[in-house]
Amino acid sequence: MGLLSRLSKAQRRQIFGNFVLNWMPRLRRAKALAREFAQIGLKAATQSYTLNTSTDSKSGVNTYAVFYAPRSDGTEALVLSAPWISRDKIRSSHMSKDIIFVVSDGDTEGLQAWLKAYHGNEQNTYERSEEALKIRSGAIQAALNLDFAGTGDYNALGIFFEGVNGQLPNLDMINSVADIAATVAPVELTLHDELVPVTENVTKNYINSLKRMLYMMKYQAVGTPTGNHGLYLKYKIDAITLYGFDKPGWHSQRYGLFRIGCLLESSIRSLNNLLEHLHQSFFFYLLSGVRRYTSIGLYMPPVIILGVSFIFHALSLWGLSSDLPLELEAMARNKNAAVSLPYARRARSVKVPATVVGLSFIAGLASFKLLTTQFGFPGETPLLKLVASAGVCSMLVLSAVSSAQVRHRILKMQAADKTKDAKGTPNNKQDPELAPAPDWITLKTFVLALSALVVTTLSALNFSLAVSIGIVIVWPYLHFRPSRLMLLNVIQTVILVGISPPGLVLFASWWYSMDVSLVLGWILEGYEILGTWLLPTICCIYWPINLAATVMVLLPVS
Amino acid sequence: MTAGGVPYGSESSAVKLKQKWHGPLANLVEDLCKVNKMRTTPACVLLITGALLALSSSSSVAASASASASSDQQYVYSSREPIPIAKAPEAFHEELVLKPMNDGSVYSHFQFTTHIGTMMDEDRFDGASSNLFAHYNLFPRSIGQILHSFEVEELHLTFTQGRWQYGDWGYPLAPSAGTGVELWAWLSDDKRQTDANWKALTNTLSGLFCASLNFIDKTITVEPKMSFRNEGPYNVHAASPDNRDNSTAPPRKLRYGSLPHENVCTENLTPWIKLLPCKSKAGIASLLKSHKLFDSRFYSMAIHVRPVCEDELCRVRSLELVQTITTVFDVARHDGSFDWSISGLFERDIEHACPLATTSKVILQLPHMLEPYQYDFNPKPPQGTYFEGTEDNKVEIAVYDLIQSTKESSPFQLAMTWRDAKNRAIRQSRPGIVAHRYFTGYGQERGGLSIEIHNNNWEQIDILYMDTLPWYLKLYLHTFNLQLHGEPFEDKHGEIVKKMLYQPAVDRARPAVLEMAVTMPPKSLIKFSISFDKVFLKYTEHPPDANRGFDVGCAVITANLPRHRGQIGRGGLDHLRVYQDRESSLVKNKRLVESESSGQGDQDEDLAMDQIRVYTETLLVSLPTPDFSMPYNVITLTCTVIALFFGSMFNLMTRNFEVVVPPADKKAKGKEVKK
After folding, report:
1. How are beta strands A285-289 and A292-295 bridged, if at all?
2. HEC assignment per residue over A500-548
3. Which of A160, A281, B248, B353 pairs as cysteine with A227 (C-beta 3.0–4.6 A)?
4. How many of the other CB atoms lie within 10 Å of CB of B442?
């Protein structure tokens, strides 16, 4: 009952909050919040931060307060954070863990700054400066992030759970909230912010589930968290975001602040009663519904098969590049061929492909550096830098291809001279010196082996990213080869350029009908603020292999 | 003069002394001044008056004065008033201190003091070897026997649940406030059996108090070199400084251990209550109802045993057992009202004082208000309230004598009500030294430890820092760094860290100990940080709740704070006896003696120091944890399969199947029987 009266009080305060606080300057707003916290008997403080990225400069003030659990030793804590809206308070005498209330400023960088300072990593440089925290509690065991836009009523509650770089909270976190939303505080619960009706049609349900799973995989692959909860996961704190939203015309019952309070209190109590850090359930899963999951044992085999296809193809190519086919040819003609040796007879030059691969990795790294460093010349934009790095890479491709073509011509002329000489001496009974394997075969072997390495390794780190990369590259990399037909070569090159990072950025901006520089800025921001791996992975791993593949397609055929 | 060996209270020798003294009085005083290297004249004047007083007063004082004059020790005693010394072999005092806090909590401090033995003519006193424990009246036998058999001289055991909020509540009257269990003892090392005795002591106490004290083994136990000295200025060992470095003094060793994650509950309280002479049947102990006590924000229960001096020169000694319970009730939890009463807090009443108690008191420390008449309390003490402390540290105190008041009206009632619930102008407490400790970094490979110490005083304060870290955190001393006011500080000349003792850990054998003597500049914030690696433990070394992490006990800061700030009410570690007037005057005199001997000659109490201990938070560290359930699952699964498969297969394969043709007559017989 105490909760009820307190909630109505909170409700009244929130009206005040929405009217006044939104228009206050940041610092005064934070101070006012801290005063509110202090009034209900919590220890409250503020933390200011600034963050200068290559594109933007951000600063803000976080407010946080700690409820010290009576009788507890304060070694463990839970976090209830909100990007500065909801302010429901729970004060119970049965808490064994402290509760930290964090009202973070800004988008994600506010909470990021707070978390960094909480773990003692606060910095004080030009790029980043975070104020040290004045009050603390123990090790944070779990966190709930609230995202309710105001005090109105909602008819659905969404769970966001994908973290930075596709990290996921323990599945029990979602399960317990789902249980509570089903029993204690009846609320329509869904994944993300989409409500899909369950129908009698099995196929339709299946497709809906698939859509949701792909939706989740999209978030996971990009590596940008879908809410503030994603930042906690980096610190091994299980966290989810609860997002209240309203879908007009949806049949479910509407709920207000009271039921949110019930849900929160029950969830916090459940987490509070945990004796250990959540570890019993899965950390690796794909969700296609709140209650449906695909475990790692089921989803790993496909991506491994994908990776294995690359490595098998690479091995067969490596075999092909030896003299085996020549012998087969000889046997087919019923000639008295020399006894075949179990190892390669045809020379396989590794120099050219190794140089190409090495150079393309250097080019990838250079473009990454180019994108992330601030040079300070006027009119410097990420888009300009992307164009510049694309230029660097195309220069590399052109130079590699042209030098290879020139080399090929020279070799061909030398070979022609040699055959002339050989014709002059007819009593040569030795096997004709086999022409070395064409460079493109060795290079393709390299490209495929590297692709296999990338896909399988990534599948353990970020499954969705590995799958998407694998699916994009599997067909072109396996089947493309230089052809004598000029047109075919051009088509292949165009496709390879299309799946290169600049091509993908263009595609994404077309798909979401956004400005290219916006897409690029978003990726850069993810890297600089949140530390997502998408940009480094794309620039330093994906792009080099793509460049090598492009070079491979343009190499001379034989 | 050979008065050094004069037994206390011996009439004849005192008479002899008097005769000797009358003649060369002036010379003697001069000698005294010389002997004590007193350069300042006020001190000499004081001494003369002291000596005159001594001559004219009772024999006991004469004896003490003569003793001080005769021996060549560093100090001289002069008394301002004669002190009656309890000659009873045993005495029991009980008192309850109540103090409303700023945040609406009510602080209660129960204190039960038992004295045993008044010894004279003992050259050497230690609890263990003396014949103290021949007979027990009030002193609990179980404690006496423990002290005797394990040669314990001083014992401090504290059980604590919850955190003491130094920022809100100031300092507690009981010095030990670290979460969990803290045990420290001075053991006699006469027979070089300290370690064996310590082990036996922890195990015995474990049994006595139903606590896991037996887990204080060699991997936890430390021997602090600077902190945790003998307690109290009137302590036997502290009182005789020549004893300290004297080779003839019995060797003593200190052992300290703490269990940060030990929960305290009724099963620990029950044996604790059993040690009281009246149990919880009478006196203030009848308020000890476990349901209410453990539903509080802070609960601490302690036992302190130590040898103390009954007089200023420590010729009369006794053993003191102090039992304390400290709780902080959250009165405002339910309706936000700060009103409280004894029967409301404890759900019990004091019917009458413990009949065995010499003194039985309830002391109410009134809140320090910025505006008058904000609260009321009932009943008012018959002799009125009085003030302690000076200027802005004045504390108003009301004392109730239970023996008297329960005779007049029983049960004893005490309640406090607030007039205006909204605007309470209570002066904030500003503790002089506050410390926080926390882990930095994340992940299971490495981490860091940061310690922030605030000095809120306007004076420079010397503190001792002691931190015990378990062996599975591998500290790197080269990463130790110091920050002053948030800026890195190069402490090249030892301006801040005066002394540092570091005992590196030994795997599975002993913890790492970091002890520092630090000088805190006025109004400063000092931050130490050090990095460590986390060890990959053997899987059997993990506790059953492995994914919770490991508790790291609190660091202890020992500081001397200026008394006139009145930060702990009325005096630091003297808390244990401070509410007994006799002892407090004893302490005062002792201080006077010390201040004179140190050449200050200043009687002003402003220079006096209170020793306090500040405990930091306990911490939780997560080490790399294997997935315990997976091998378990695999083992159970495979074992089940193998057991089922192997059992049936083996049975089938080893069994010899034969066609048995039953004999015809047997068959017939069977049929007959059936029929």
Report:
1. antiparallel
2. CHHHHHHHHHHHCCCCHHHHHHHHHHHHHHHCCCHHHHHHHHHHHHHHH
3. A160
4. 20
Q: How far apart are CA A165 and CA A167, in angstroms?
A: 6
Q: How far is CA B304 from CA A340, B137, B217, B326, B552, in A?
A: 93, 18, 21, 14, 24
Predicted local confidence at residue B605, as pLDDT? 46
Q: By residue range, what is the domain housing residue B511?
A: 433-564+588-652
Contact A235 B442 (CB under 8 A): yes
Q: Which of residues 33-62 of B touch A (CB under 8 A)?
A: none
**What six digits make up the tokens of A332?**
């087919």
> How many domains is chain B partitioned into structurally?
3
Eight-state DSSP code of residue A437: P
Q: Say how many CA atoms lie within 13 Å of A432 toward its Cβ.
A: 14
Strand partners of residue B550: B621
In the predicted model, is pLDDT for residue B78 greater than 50?
no
Instruction: Find out whether B554 and A73 touch, Cβ atoms under 8 Å.
Output: no
When the pLDDT of each residue in chain B is averaged and rounded to a whole number, the result is 74
Identify which of A75, A120, A279 has the shortest CB distance to residue B620.
A75
Residue A41: closest CA among chain B residues belongs to which residue? B103
- What's residue B591's pLDDT? 54
> Which residues is A79 bridged to in the sheet?
A100, A143
Whether B529 has its CB under 8 Å from any CB of chain A: the answer is: yes
> For chain A, what are the domain ranges?
1-137, 143-149+160-247+257-290, 299-331+345-419+434-554
- d(C-alpha B390, C-alpha B565), whole Å: 8
Contacts of B621 in chain A (CB under 8 A): 139
The answer to whether residue B326 neighbours chain A at the CB level (below 8 Å) is no
User: Given pLDDT bands bounded at 50, 70 and 90, which one contains residue A88?
Assistant: very low
SS3 A399: helix
Given CATH 3.40.50.2300, say whether it is the number of domain A1-137: no
> Residues B298, B394: one domain?
yes
Sequential DSSP letters for A314-336: HHHHHHHTTTHHHHHHHHHTT--
Element (H, E) at A554: helix A543-554
Interface of B with A in 253-272 (CB under 8 A): 260-261
Q: Residue B337: which residues within 8 A CB-CB, separation 6 or more?
A: B331, B418, B421
Instruction: Determine, for residues A138 and B440 on separate chains, whether the beta-carbon distance falls below 8 Å.
Output: no
- Which residues have C-beta within 8 Å of that of residue A273, sequence separation ≥ 6? A96
Residue A514 reports pLDDT greater than 70: yes
Query: Taking CB atoms and an 8 Å cut-off, how many pairs form between chains A and B?
Result: 92
Residues 6+ apart with CB under 8 A from A131: A47, A48, A49, A117, A122
Summarize pLDDT for B102-151 with one digit per residue, the tens.
777 888 989 898 877 654 434 444 444 445 556 677 888 888 888 888 88
For residue B82, the SS3 value is coil
Q: Please give the structure tokens belonging to residue A341.
A: 């040796």
Task: List C-alpha distances in Å: B482 to A130, B126, B453.
Answer: 19, 42, 11
* B107 CA to centre of own chain: 17
Alpha carbons B238 and B229: distance in angstroms, whole number: 9
Last residue of a domain, one of B46, B78, B110: B78
Residue B344, CA atoms < 13 Å, CB-side half-sphere:
15
| Residue B423 sits in the same domain as residue B464 | no
A236 vs B442: CB contact, 8 Å cut-off?
Answer: yes
B145-188 pLDDT, tens digit each: 888 888 888 899 999 988 888 888 888 887 777 888 999 998 88
Which residues are CB-contacts of B296 (< 8 A; sequence separation ≥ 6)? Answer: A70, A71, B162, B327, B328, B329, B330
- Let me know whether B97 and B177 are in one domain: yes
Alpha-carbon gap, residue B387 to B402, rounded angstroms: 21
Instruction: Confirm whether B277 is domain-assigned.
Output: yes
Are A139 and B486 in contact (CB < 8 Å)? Answer: no
